[in-house]
Write a structure and sequence with these properties.
Helices cover 53% and strands 4% of the residues. The termini are far apart.
Length: 159
Amino acid sequence: MHDKDKDGFWRADELQAVLRTFRINLPHQDFVLFWNLLDEDGSGLLDVGEFLRGLLGEMSEARVGIVHRAWLKIDPARVGEVSYKTVRQFYNPAISLDPDSDGTATKEELVEEFLECFSAGPLSQRITYSEFVDYYTALSLSEEDDRVFLTFMRHCWNV
């Protein structure tokens, strides 16, 4: 949405266009403050993780810990990225936080649906630690109860 050059980042003018789409018109000085809050690294580019953390905050310490443990299970050498093949070996999508799930999808379909969340293109076939954390940060918003989220993570990643 409004990523003009399709590089996966928003620039200030692109974020302003997004805000206008939702009829949010900030005075210039307020937008500059908002932008500086979101652009954590000062790069002038806003990625999804920065946007989510800026708007929604961080996960609880318990959630961060279990997401990190799940990552270490699939990346024990701490390379910082894993192949889809590795994820397929460890991910167990037998339970869902999705209230609309009817339970009829196969395990293979659920694994592929999970991997599609990370698809940067047909050749990528890899997930970085940052993408993994960003995914679970966003998913974390759908469940208020830490116990439910932690149980979900334990089951999906056997951690």
